[in-house]
Amino acid sequence: MDGRVFIGMVLGVGLSGCGGVDSDWQQAPSAPSFFGSPTPVEGIGAGVSVGSVAPVGPYGGGGTVVSSATFSLTGYLEGQLHVVELAGDTTDNTGTFDLWDSGSGNLYVNLAARGNGGAGMLMIGITSPDIANALSNGQWSTADAATGAVSVNGCAGPVMGQWDNELPAVGFDMSAEEAPEDPGTVLVQIKAQFPLDAAAAWTQPLNTLPTSELRGTFSFQRFAQLE
To answer: Please, how many CA atoms are within 13 Å of residue 25, restricted to the half-sphere of its CB?
Structure first.
């Protein structure tokens, strides 16, 4: 597989780009959508129409959409993304959740914060045929991105909302569990590596590029629909 493959695509649903990207930026092709017409949410490609029908897929979809909603979350980012050093709570967070009557579902999250040298945003997508279990005891790594089960991408820029650099993750490890100190709260932890040279990420194999590491956590109340 070409090392330049953009791992920020969930099977059937592509996360939208950072926005504010330079006109010379080489964009990855969008994945085809199998899940109906999306409801736009700033920063991410998310949401489907309740009642729409989707074909069965290995990592989500199949059946009738029974819930599609945004949700609140808190997050923390620490490490380096492009030239931005981050170490603090995220201040601009967005989450969306889609659930099918089959039990499969999609989760999309954006976490953004100001840092030393600019601002950074982490974009995560999770798709599972059993989303309730995935959010209770989920484990993902780089290999899962190639199959479409999960996506991890970053954006960096001089200020919040001006994301001049779009960065596909080179590698990552991520887990989801019920927060030990707060039953009913989902806790997601991730450690990801991103190329330091944003332009080279689109023209050279990712596994040949120098990287930086970004660590993040985010949490939210477990969805009532999953109980």
So the answer is: 19
- Whether residue 99 contacts residue 225, with contact meaning beta carbons closer than 8 Å, is answered with yes
User: What's at 132, amino acid-wise?
Assistant: A
Question: Across the chain, what does the average pLDDT equal?
Answer: 79
Q: Residue type for 1, please?
A: M
Q: Which amino acid appears at position 60 of this protein? A: G
Q: Which residues pair with 151 in a beta bridge?
A: 125
Asked whether the predicted pLDDT for residue 44 surpasses 60, the reply is: no
More confident position, 7 or 128: 128
What is the model's pTM? Answer: 0.78
Distance from C-alpha of 7 to C-alpha of 105, rounded to nearest angstrom: 19
Say how many C-beta atoms besides its own lie within 10 A of residue 23's C-beta: 4
Q: Which of 148, 77, 31, 3 is nearest to 140 (CA)?
A: 148
Looking from the CA of 98 toward its CB, the CA atoms found within 13 Å total: 31
Q: CA 5 to CA 205: how far, in whole Å?
A: 8
Dump pLDDT digits (tens) for 110-132: 999 999 999 999 999 999 999 99
Q: Which tokens go with 212?
A: 């930086």
User: Residue 149's closest CA among 11, 7, 8?
Assistant: 11
Place of tokens 């945003």: 121
